[in-house]
Amino acid sequence: MAEFKILITSQKGGVGKSTVSANLAAYLCRQGRKVALLDFDLHGSSSKWLEGAPPIGIDIHHEPLPLEIGGTRPVHEAKQKLRRLCYSNDIVISDLTWSDSMTAELLFEYDLVIVPTSVSEIELNATSDFLERFRWVFESTIHTPPKLLLSPTRVHNDQMSDTTLFKQHFPFRLILAPAILEGQSARQMYKRGYLCDLTDACGTSFNEFGSAVLEAIELITQNKAKLATDSNSRMKALLKLAAQYEASLSSMLSIKSRSSTAASQPSTPAKY
C-alpha cells in the first residue's frame, strides 16, 4: 500500500482527539496496515495511551512541536518528521491540537484531515468557524487539497436522535463519519486496551467509524493512483509532442542548411 497521511486535529481539547488518534491507529493496525502515530501534542496523551496498552506493532513517536516560536519553524519540523515516517509505514496518523501560530500550509501535507467534534450547538458552531478559516485549503485548485472528515465524538445515546448536527451549516462539503458513542468502558481502556476490542455500543460505534475511515482511505488512494496515471499519460503525450517538434525542427534546419549550401556554390556558365 502506498503511504497515506492522516491529520487528526481540533482547536480545543475535550473532544476526544487523542482518543480517536490512538484508537484509529490500533484499528488500522488490526486491519493489517503498518501504522505510525506521530503525536505532536505537548502532553502526549495519544502516545501515552499506546505505550501503556498491549503492544500490537504501532510505530509510536511523541514529537512536540515548538509552537511557542511561531513562524514557519513548527511547520517545517512537522513536515520533516512526517516525511521521515512515511518511508517505513503504510499510514501515518498525526495528533495535533491546532494553534494560531501554525500556518495552514501544513494541511497540504495530508491526504485526510479528521476533525473530532461534540454535537452540542455551541461546539458545532465553533467547529464550523474553525473550518471556515481553512476553506481555501479544502477548495484549492492550485494544490491537491486533503479530504475532510468530520467525526462526532463522545455522543450519548439520547443525542443520536438530535437533529442539531444535520441542521448545522458547514462552509464546504465534507465527509460525515459515524458517531463515536460515549461510554465508561472507553475511559477504562486508557493505557489498557483499544476501543475496537470493546463489545458494547461504544466499541461497535468505534468500529463503524474505523470502517468508514478505511473506506475513505481506499477511495482517496484509488483517486491518487488515477491522478498519477493521468499525469503520467499527459507527460508521455507531452514528451511525444516534444520529440515530434524536435524532429520537425531538425528536418527544417537540415533543408535550410542544404539550401544555403546550394546557394553558396558558384554557378557554372552554360556552354553553347
Structure characterization notes:
It is a single chain. With 272 residues, the chain is an alpha/beta fold. It has a single domain (4-228), classed as P-loop containing nucleotide triphosphate hydrolases (Rossmann fold, 3-Layer(aba) Sandwich), CATH 3.40.50.300. The chain is 46% helix and 14% strand. It has 8 helices and 7 strands; from the N terminus they run βαβαβαββααβαβαα. A 7-stranded parallel β-sheet has the order 3-2-4-1-5-6-7, sandwiched between helices. The longest helix is centred in the C-terminal third of the chain and has 64 residues, at 201-264. The protein is elongated.
What is this entry, summarized?
46% of the residues lie in helices and 14% in strands.
For the biggest β-sheet, the strand order reads 3-2-4-1-5-6-7
Q: Largest sheet at a glance?
A: 7 strands, parallel
Overall shape: it is elongated
Helix content: 40-55%
Quickly list its features.
single chain, 7-stranded parallel beta sheet, Rossmann fold, 7 strands, 272 residues, alpha/beta
Secondary structure elements and pairings:
Elements: E1 4-10, H1 17-30, E2 35-39, H2 45-52, E3 59-62, H3 73-86, E4 91-97, E5 112-117, H4 121-132, H5 135-138, E6 147-152, H6 164-167, E7 175-176, H7 184-188, H8 201-264
Parallel strand pairs: 1-4, 1-5, 2-3, 2-4, 5-6, 6-7
Helix pairs in contact: 1-2
